[in-house]
Design brief:
The protein is built from five helices and ten strands, in the order ααββββαββαββββα. It is α+β, with helices and mostly antiparallel strands. Strands 3, 4, 5, 7, 8, 9 and 10 form a seven-stranded antiparallel beta sheet that branches. It has a three-stranded antiparallel beta sheet with strand order 1-2-6. Keywords: Membrane, Transmembrane, Transmembrane helix.
Length: 200
């Protein structure tokens, strides 16, 4: 056995080096994947304090870094059609920036209450043929958050759709799917600039 190892030590050494190379390549892939996941934005959109239209809409930043919320867009789907409207600036004539705008920095691991779903959908309903106080024909509500993240040139974003469920003369909101859709593809992220321009 020892004689065989001695006579084939060059071949064995080469095989060991090749095996080590594959191990390092696998380790590098794991490291790069982990690094890219950490650098990705992760924005969550949730419902809180109830399940009706008066429930609060929370935006959470689960990224490893802070984000800067550039724009928030509400979209309503009704029996008559579908309308979208920026809701970044909820109030007029207020000097307190915390109350006047939903725009601004959001640190990692923090969340912001952007108001009730009713207050978010009213501007979008005004864009259509539905009176803001008449929401019986609502089918779904979609919230889109657009933010700057880190040193990336492209904007980051996330969307979540809530279906409107009728139960005992009440309108309830239920997430269309579990979790928030993160806007990842380059093409989708490039389109976010157009959405922000509409909010200028």
């Amino acid at each position: 056995m020892w004689n065989w190892i001695t006579s084939n030590h060059q071949v064995i050494g080469t095989l060991v080096n090749i095996a080590m190379l594959f191990v390092w390549i696998a380790y590098l892939q794991v490291f790069v994947s982990s690094y890219r996941r950490q650098k990705r934005s992760s924005i969550l959109i949730n419902r809180s304090s109830g399940s009706g239209l008066d429930a609060r809409c929370l935006i959470s930043n689960m990224s490893a870094e802070a984000i800067y919320i550039e724009s928030i867009i509400a979209t309503v789907a009704t029996a008559e059609g579908r309308w979208s409207c920026p809701v970044t600036e909820p109030l007029e004539g207020r000097s307190d920036l915390d109350l006047k705008t939903r725009q601004g920095p959001l640190q990692a691991g923090r969340f912001i209450d952007i108001g009730s779903f009713q207050s978010l959908i009213e501007p979008a309903l005004r864009m259509g043929t539905v009176a803001p106080n008449r929401s019986e024909n609502l089918v779904a509500v979609e919230i889109k958050v657009i933010a700057a993240h880190g040193s990336e040139d492209l904007l980051a974003g996330a969307t979540r759709r809530f279906d409107v469920i009728r139960q005992q003369d009440r309108l309830l909101l239920r997430g269309h799917v579990v979790g928030t859709h993160q806007i990842r593809s380059r093409r989708e992220r490039e389109r976010l600039h157009d959405d922000v321009e509409l909010d200028l």
